[in-house]
Amino acid sequence: MESTTIPSLSRSIATGTIGFGLVSLFVFATVAYGERRMYQNFGMLGAYLAWTVTFIVLSAAVFGTLVVGRWRLPRFYLLFGLAFFAYAVAWMLAYYNWPNTTGEVIGSLAGSVSMALVFAIAFESIESIVKLSAVLFVSNFLGYFIGSALNNSLGDQIGMLLWGVAYGLFFGAGIGAALHIVQRR
Fold first, then answer.
1. How many Å apart are CA 128 and CA 185, to the nearest integer?
2. Every domain of the chain and the residues it spans
3. DSSP secondary structure string, 57-104?
4. Would you put residue 184 in left (φ > 0), alpha (ψ -120 to 50) or beta?
5. Please, are residues 163 and 150 in contact by the beta-carbon 8 Å criterion?
6. Which one of 67, 113, 122, 170 is most buried, counting C-beta atoms within 10 A?
7. SS3 content of the chain, % helix, strand, coil (to 5)
8. Residues 6 or more apart whose Cβ sits within 8 Å of residue 128
9. Residue 68, φ and ψ in degrees, nearest 5
10. What digits encode the pLDDT tens for the residues 5-19?
11. Are 128 and 182 in contact, with CB atoms under 8 Å apart?
C-alpha cells in the first residue's frame, strides 16, 4: 500500500540538501574535469543539454522519495524533468541575453518561477506559486552565488567542485521545501 503521509518539512529539506548536493557535486565534477571535452564533442548547447539531463535523471530519484500519491515514481520523473527543464531553459535564455551577473540574477529568478509554476500546476496548488517562487529563488540564488564566489576565489577544479556543492546544498533544500509545500493542503 502506498503511503499518503507527506514527509515533514525538515525531512524534505534534509533529503533535498544531501541528495541534490551529491547530484550537483557529480554534475559539477563532469564540468570541472570534462568541460573542454564536452564542448568539443557536443558543442555548448549539447553539453548544457547533457548536464541538464544528468541533473534530471539523478535528482528525480532523490526528490521522488518525497512525493506521495499520483506523482509517485515513475511519473515523478516526467514531472521533475519538465520542472527542471523549464528552470534550465529560463535560466539559460536570461543568461545568454545578459551574459553577466544581471543575467545570472534574472536567470535565477526566471528559472525559479518556471519551476514553481510547473510544481504548482501539477500538484493543483496554484495558490502556492508566490511562496514556491520565493523559496526556490532564494535557495537557488544563495547556492549559485555562494558557489560562484568559491569558484572565483579558488579556481581550477576545486573551485568548480565547491560551486557544485554550494549550489546543490542550497537549491536542494529549496526544492525539497517546495515539494513539501505543494503537497500540503
1. 10
2. 9-183
3. HHHHHHHGGG--GGG-TTHHHHHHHHHHHHHHHHHHHHHHHSTTHHHH
4. beta
5. yes
6. 170
7. 90, 0, 10
8. 116, 120, 181, 182
9. -115, 165
10. 899 999 999 999 999
11. yes
End-to-end CA distance of the chain: 22
**Residue 122: all three cell numbers together:** 501539477
pLDDT at 185: 66
Q: Which three cell numbers stand for residue 109?
A: 529568478
Q: Is the pTM of this model over 0.85?
A: yes
| Nearest in space to 169 (alpha carbons), one of 148, 150, 142, 151 | 142
99 upstream amide cis, omega within 30 of 0: no
CA distance 63 to 142: 20
